[in-house]
Amino acid sequence: MEKQTHYPMIIGDQEVTSGSQDLIDPATGQVFATVAMGTPEDVDKAVTVAKQAQKEWAQVSFGERSLAMLKFADALEQKAEDLAKLESVNTGKPLKLSQGGDIPFSIDNIRYFASVVRHQEGAAAGSYVGGYTSMIRREPIGVVGAITPWNYPFMMAAWKIGPALAAGNAIVIKPAPNTPTTTIELAKIALESGLPAGLINVVTGEAAVGEAICNHPDTRMITFTGSTRTGKRVMELASQRAKRVTLELGGKAPFVVFADADIEACAQGAVAAAYMNTGQDCTAATRFYVQNEVFDQFLERFTELTKQIGMGKPFDADTDIGPLVSAVQRNKVHGLVEEARQQGIKIATGGELPDGDGFFYPPTILVETPQDANCVQEEIFGPVVVVNRFTDEENAIALANDIPYGLAASVWTTNVQRAMRVTAAIEAGTVWVNDHLPIASEMPHGGFKQSGFGKDMSQYALEEYTIVKHVMFDNTGDQRKAWHSVVFGD
After folding, report:
1. Taking Cα atoms as reference points, which of 473, 446, 474 lies closest to residue 159?
2. Spatial distance between the Cα atoms of 43 and 178, rounded to a whole number of angstroms
3. What are the b/e assignments for 330-368, b being 16+ CB within 10 Å?
4. What is the rounded average pLDDT of the residues 435-440?
5. In terms of residue numbers, what domain contains 395?
6. Spatial CB neighbours of 485, under 8 Å, sequence gap ≥ 6
7. 136 and 176 both lie in a single domain
């Protein structure tokens, strides 16, 4: 993969270079490249070529579709090292996270959908009404519009593209304007691998491009990952034409520690759960609820481990967390910490803006915060957590559920019965027991409440990108149908 200074849009098999916006390296604050800036007219061109490509792709057999996607995944794997480096430059995340997590997991996700399309499930064909045979078909939706966020740009693109293509759709995808590079490269690699032109189209730009995708009469589904506020706008626009919508929105995951838990394991797990990707993760543990009996023990060890985290440049081997993605994001994070400080909330560690270049922010722990404080109720999306107390199981569940979001949570206990009760009671799409963050391509990812609806990953995601059709055959050839007698009494 050659080093580029300008990244074009990909529409069909064309590289479109109109417009230009600077791309900033979060670790230095300096421009490292530019990207094309699309318009609603570019969206219209992309949807037009996607619509044509989709008609042909939908006719391809499941086996051929699977093979084409597997070749695509192989082509991505051949360029995985370059993709990981580019992802880290564009987002500021540690290279070891891109190399060991984001890129290989995304490729695995595409391979998963390449395989699962060959084993689709549904009701067995049979005579549910006497004299007739019913069968289920899963049809592609058509052109899917996708809008993805800046925290995991390559992974979120793969999560949308995998099920969309497997189901027989084409896709027009808008990456976040500040982190488009690996999505553009993904679309180029798709063409190089032999996937038909027009199946994956990338239109870069600001909100007007996203709105054009949502409004276009020929996008029949909108899939969005991002903030709850923007997700509501996406849903509003899509509703004008009754489009299918999936939304993976904000999160504020509770991390519930009971007194019988292994506190060392909890503290070690808390560090990864809170600070991976510099806390810019909708499933990150951000609200720690610790039972009174072990509160001080947990807080002391968690704080000690937090102070040992290596914050630095993405390509340094000893870097655990890199910078936040932008100056705007750092100002937002620091503003919420300053608000907590002004409210008299104790800060166990962190909370100060560091000197030097880049958008770095230290891991920060706020202690015993009011449940109604913004730092508890609102998504901070940075390396900032709150550690609060709870008394008993009922209290823990009430606190865990007392927010607008419900994307993820974890429960830490050695009591299996308690784990079963609490995981059932917590309102979240994923609940881990004695761990936090692991995901699998075979398992669904999505939320409750204002964390959205619909699923990424798994068989459930493939179903989101299809329309179920009932086909019914007359077995008898008898022109005088039984139902005719029922309806007309003859």
Report:
1. 446
2. 18
3. beebbebbeebeeeebeebbbbeeeeeebbbbbbbbbbe
4. 97
5. 253-433
6. none
7. yes
Report yes or no on 301 lying in a domain: yes
Q: Which token pair is 290?
A: 């610790």
Q: What is the average per-residue pLDDT within 327-350?
A: 97
pLDDT digits (tens, 9 = 90+) for 231-281: 999 999 999 999 999 999 999 999 999 999 999 999 999 999 999 999 999
In this prediction, residue 477 carries a pLDDT of: 76
Residue found by looking up tokens 């540690």 in the block: 94
* Whole-number Å distance between alpha carbons of 484 and 37: 60
- Residue 318 scores a pLDDT above 80: yes
Pairing of strands 364-367, 384-390: parallel
Tokens at 448, concatenated: 């409750």
| Beta partners for residue 390, in sequence order | 291
Classify residue 2 as exposed, middle or buried by CB count within 10 Å of its CB (0-12, 13-18, 19+).
exposed
Share of the chain above pLDDT 90, in %: 94
Would you state the pLDDT for residue 120?
A: 85
Considering only CA atoms, which of 195, 207, 131, 130 is closest in space to residue 169?
A: 195
Provide the token pair at 208.
């007007």
| Residue closest to 372 by CA, chosen among 361, 388, 358, 383 | 388
Query: Got the DSSP string for 338-390?
Result: HHHHHTT-EEEE--SPPSSSS-----EEEES--TTSHHHHS---SSEEEEEEE
Domain tally for the chain?
A: 2
Phi then psi for residue 98, to 5 deg, are: -65, -45
**Residue 121 pLDDT level (bands cut at 50, 70, 90):** confident
- Determine the pLDDT at residue 425: 98
**Phi-psi category of residue 100: left, alpha or beta, with phi > 0 → left and psi -120 to 50 → alpha:** alpha
- 212 lies in a domain? yes
- pLDDT, averaged across the chain: 96
Please check whether residues 232 and 269 belong to one and the same domain. no
In three-state secondary structure terms, 27 is coil
pLDDT at 4 over 80: no
Task: Report the predicted TM-score, pTM, of the whole model to 2 decimal places.
Answer: 0.95
Q: Is the pLDDT of residue 419 over 90?
A: yes
**Alpha-carbon gap, residue 345 to 339, rounded angstroms:** 9
Q: Which residues contact 114 (CB under 8 A, 6 or more apart)?
A: 65, 66, 67, 69, 70, 73, 162, 166
Per-residue tokens: 360: 């770095």
pLDDT at 342: 96
DSSP annotation of 245: E
pLDDT band at 481 (very low <50, low <70, confident <90, very high): low
Q: Give me the active site residues, please.
A: 248, 282
H or E segment to which residue 399 belongs: helix 393-401
CATH assignment at residue 419 = 3.40.309.10
Query: Cβ–Cβ contacts within 10 Å for residue 148, how many?
Result: 27
